[in-house]
Design goal:
Radius of gyration: 17 Å
Strand content: 35-45%
Structural class: mainly beta
Number of helices: 2
Largest sheet: 7 strands, antiparallel
Helix content: 10-25%
Amino acid sequence: MQMKRLFRLARIALIPAAVAACEDPSRGPVAGEDLVFLRPAADAPALAVNQISFVAVAGEDYDIRIPYENGDECLRFRLDDDALTRRPGGARMYPGDTITITIRVVDNGYFNFEFQPAGLRFAEPAELRVNYQFAHPDFNGDGEVDDDDEDFEFGWWRQEMPGQRWEQIASARLHDLTEVRAEIDGFTRYALAGGN
């Protein structure tokens, strides 16, 4: 248990160092039309599943993945054993209590995912990763694949309810792994995007 906590602290400590280029803390919530949402390339493999539901037990770890049909990983969600302590309405969860969790692809044309039940909050942050190796290389959406795409900053954005504005969250883009990671404190809608 002690080693697990040390590992978690080390993992958390590394994210802020990698976040600097991916987050503009002065930026407030923005409308969806002010963002460029990453989308899969035309030749990207299909996802193996568009939705995963499972019964989570308070006091247990979870490592859930949404793969592509070719076996490569698209999304990974990791939840520590001490994260589930409250239900969405605030009622306390005790070890052994259960809750059904659903991760759904909102739109196959984007890296846009919905986590249910909405409002679920964690005592310890969960880790959210997405591999963007099959994203369209025109990251900034200007119709050209050029050096501007490599300089385009994108990361995780959160939308509490459909139609509401999007809020940027701290995330780290790991270029060598073609991966974007974030630690999240609860469930809602998350998408990979960058500012226009």
